[in-house]
Amino acid sequence: MSTTVEAVRPERVRSWTRRTGPGVAVAGAGAAAAMVINGWVPALSALTMAVLLGVLVGGALPESAADGLQWATRKFLRVGVVLLGLQLSVGEVLRLGPGMLAVVLVTVLAGFAGTLVLGRLVGVPKGLALMVATGFSICGASAIVAMDSVARSRKEDVATGVTLVTIYGSAAIVVVPFLGTHVFGLSRESLGMWAGLSVHEVAQVVAAASPAGAAAVGTAVIVKLTRVVLLAPMVAGMGLVERRGGVHAEGKRPPVVPLFVVGFLVMLALRSAGVVPGPVLAGAKDVSTVLLAAAMFGLGSAVRVKELVRTGRRGLVLGALSTLLVGTVALTALTLIPR
């Protein structure tokens, strides 16, 4: 009996490798290409480049890569999001002070809820409105795909959301420092805070705050990562909503709190406790980026451009309105809430 079991296990491993290996390798290659581009142009984050590369080459990939790409999208995403929890400690968040924490909370909640309302007014699909609300109010592409794990939107809605994050986040790199300095007269510190509150991807935040100096960049990144911390409760909350709404098409209820969200919180606790060595933190950040980029490439490869074009115009309008909403709420909260 034991001999039979021992013989079956290696065969299962070989079968799994044959079925998923090609797609996982393609996802890895896509992630590597995205990171090379990010090295050339740091303002273009590896995650958004990965999904765009996936969209571009998806139609040309062999059918044998499909299973592996789906596997990479699901599994790599979850591990990558878990490792994101090591990028910030509770102490760093608390050092912002209660006033600034209130500003972050107001910006995220108002941006999220307001974008959902705007999506209804613009007439975009509910799934796309949710993806835009998540990406623009919390933390860009990684938040979008994390939210999709409980909301199960169409692949086209997810990819469109990531594309809009790229477009409007890239525009913010120029617009935010110009408006902050020449129109609103913000101090360097306030400009960093505004960039951290209103720009979508971490790389874009760094680029937007850099004209104000290194101190402003540091402030912007901490504020931005504080928004990332809110990813866990937002995804958990949507999981509860989806469970009450019934089963998904595949006949399963989404989890109340996805396991990877629990893992994210555990990593946040470990970082806060100071038990993770510095070299491990640096390595985990790189591994998280690679895994998330591979997941994004897999996501993009499943998208068909015709579907993107079909909803593109209204999506662009929603992205513009959401950008204005988040930026306005953030600036207003910075002005009115004592820090």
From TrEMBL:
Localization (cell): Cell membrane
What Gene Ontology cellular-component terms does the record carry? Answer: plasma membrane
Broad class of the protein's primary localization: membrane
> Which residues are listed as membrane-spanning?
46-64, 76-94, 100-121, 128-146, 158-179, 215-236, 256-275, 287-305, 317-337
Q: In the UniProt record, does the keyword Nucleotidyltransferase occur?
A: no
Q: Which UniProt keywords apply?
A: Cell membrane, Membrane, Transmembrane, Transmembrane helix
Q: List, alphabetically, the Pfam families matched.
A: Cons_hypoth698
Name-wise, this protein is: Putative sulfate exporter family transporter
State the taxonomy lineage.
Bacteria, Bacillati, Actinomycetota, Actinomycetes, Streptosporangiales
